[in-house]
Amino acid sequence: MKKVIESMKKLFEGIYSDGKGIYTQSIVPGNRVYGEKIVSEKGAEYREWNPFHSKYCAAIKNGLEKSIFFEGAKVLYLGSAEGTSVSHVSDIVGDRGFVFGVDISETAMQKLIDLSEIRHNIFPIIGDAEQPDEYAPFIEEKVDILFQDVSQRNQAEIFVKNARFLKKGGFGALTLKTKSISQSKKMKDILSEEKKKLAESFEVTQVVSLEPFEASHYLILVKKK
Ligand SMILES: C[S@@+](CC[C@H](N)C(=O)[O-])C[C@H]1O[C@@H](n2cnc3c(N)ncnc32)[C@H](O)[C@@H]1O
Predict the structure, then answer these.
(1) Does 160 lie in the same domain as 81?
(2) Residues 92, 174: one domain?
């Protein structure tokens, strides 16, 4: 049974607020990942989640209705970078869950590997999310959650290619950076075109604008058909 701090109100499973900031409860007390604020009391430790550094946290700030992450979940996270957001997902899924973190950048991957030595539920994979066959051998069972944050022009296509790893009925989310697709088209028009690309494999459950935390970004929440 996890110890809890009374001043922390639960927003979603594994996600808390002290009335101002958003927090996850650290599975590695005493360890800061990116200079984040830590609140601790009576053996329980919470790490502040910064909406300017993490798009999922920005979505929580902007009215996310249902969180996709839960304790014990198996997650495939595409575009893990150095692991800023992955570290919070690692807190939420806990020791019974795990996060495969895929990134194409060797520099980012080195930091994620260092993080995985401290957080044992992170499995770093260097790979191109456009070539899922490259990392398919590591993912032996289908995952509960597919998350993607790769800021590429063909973001929706990449997400659809990776749908094969997600369980039927499993939840997912992808960030959509509209400026990566077109500088001139309206954000809403780009969003409807991208939603159409997702429609065959996914039901869109919510779309959250990430402004002002991330300009020209949406988070699209989905459920696999
Ligand atoms: C915006 S950053 C991700 C930030 C991270 N999600 C976080 O919140 O901490 C985008 C990442 O996607 C990675 N990326 C871009 N294209 C990729 C691809 N085709 N396959 C895998 N990773 C890719 C980049 O190397 C970069 O680290």
Answers:
(1) yes
(2) yes
Rounded to whole angstroms, the Cα distance separating 85 from 77 reads: 10
* Domains of the chain: total: 2
What SS3 state is found at 190? helix
- CATH number at 158 reads 3.40.50.150
The CA-CA-CA angle for residues 143, 135, 217, to 5°, reads 65
Instruction: Report pLDDT digits (tens) over 137-187.
Output: 999 999 999 999 998 899 999 999 999 999 999 999 999 999 999 999 999
76: enclosing H helix or E strand: strand 74-78
pLDDT interval class at 95 (50, 70, 90): very high
111 and 206 inside one domain: yes
Q: Which of 149, 177, 179, when mutated, tests ligand 1's pocket best, judged by the most ligand atoms within 8 Å of its CB? A: 149
Atom in ligand 1 nearest the alpha carbon of residue 55: 8
